[in-house]
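Sorry to interrupt, but I need a hand with the structure work. Please put the record directly below this note.
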Amino acid sequence: MKILYCAIDQTVPGSVGGSVHVTAVAEGLAALGHDVHVLVSPGDGPFPQGPVHWTAMTPPLGKKELRWARRSSVRKVAKAVAPDVIVERYYNFGGEGLAAAAVTGALSVLEVNAPVVDYPGSPKATLDRALIVEPMRRWRDRLCAHADLIVTPAASILPPGTPADKIVELEWGADTDRFTPGAKGPVPFERPPGTLALFAGAFRSWHGAIDLVRAMRLLADRKITGFSAVLIGDGPEKPRAESEANGLDRVLFTGAVPHDRMPACLASADIGVAPFDVSAHKPLTLGFYWSPLKIFEYMSAGLPVVAPAGGRMSHLVEHEREGLLYDPPSPAALADALARLADPEQRRALGRAARERAVREYSWNAHCQALEAAIVRKLRSRAVVRGS
C-alpha cells in the first residue's frame, strides 16, 4: 500500500511521546513493505534514514491551532503521492488529512490519542456552549464521523455513537529490539551503587515526578538505604522536583536526553517508575486514556514497573507479575512499593515477565501489524460495497 501520514504538529526527530510514536509507526509500516510518506514539522537534526519519505510541513506560525490552514498544501501532496490510505493524527483543529482523503478517494484513518469529548466543566466546553452552536464539538464530531477507521488506545474518548466497526483499540509500544536489558551506550549519569529507580518524562504535574522524590525522602527517613533515583527529562515541574530533592544526595536529575540514548539509560536502572497523578490533570477524569510510552519501554528493557493502580493501568501492568501497583496518590505507598523491590531476585523475576509481555503485546511491530490488518480489512469491505 501507499500510505500518507499527516502529523504536521509533531516534530521529527524528537524525544517527546508524539515524535517517537509517529516515527515508530511510519518506520514500522515501511518495514512491513508499504510505501510510506510522512508530513511532519522538522526537528533539531536530519530526518531518520531509511525507506520512509519524510516531508517537512509545519502548521502556520508553528501553531497547532492553525493546522487546518494547511489543507491546500496537504491536498497538493496527496494528489502527487496518490496514496491508498491517508492517516491523520487527530487534533481539535485538524482535519486536513481527512479532507485530502475525500478529494483523492483514499481510505481515511484517524489516529486519536487524546479525548475528542470534553471532560466535565472544561473551559473549552464552556466557551463552545457560549457560542450557541458549539462549533468545536461539532467539528470534532465531524472528523470522527467522516473517518473510515479510527485507531485509539481507548474508545471511551470518542464521541458517543461512534460505530464500533470503525474503531480499532491499539496500545502504543516500544522498540523491543533496541530497548533490551543489555542495551549499551553512553548514559548521562554515573550509576550509584545499590538499587536504582528511574523516571523518564516531560515533568508535567500529572507525571508525578515530585512524588518519586518525596518517596525517596521517606525511604531515607525510614533508614532504608541502598536506593537511588535518576529523573530524566525536562518540563514545568522540574524546578519543583529539584527543590523537593534538596539534601537528597542519591537523587539525580539529568535534563532532557535524546531518545536514541534512552535504551542504555533504562538498561542501567533496576526499576522503572511511572508515578502518574491523575488528579492533577482534569482530562483524566474521563478515565486513564493514555497509552504510556514510558511503561512499555520500561517493560521492554526488563524493568519491573512501579505505578499507581486503577483504571487501565491495572490491565497494562499485572500487579506482582510485571511490577507493583500502589494506591494513588501517595508518596508513602510509592515508597512502600520501592522498598518491596529491594530484593534483586524479585526484581529480576518481575523484569523478565515484563520483558516477555512487552515483546508479545507492546512492540511497535505488533502495533503496526494490527494497524495494517485493520486497514486491509476496511479496504476490502469498502471494495465489496463499491462493487455491489
In short: The longest helix spans residues 364-387. The CA atoms of residues 320 and 350 lie 7 Å apart. The domain at 2-173+363-387 is CATH 3.40.50.2000 (Rossmann fold).
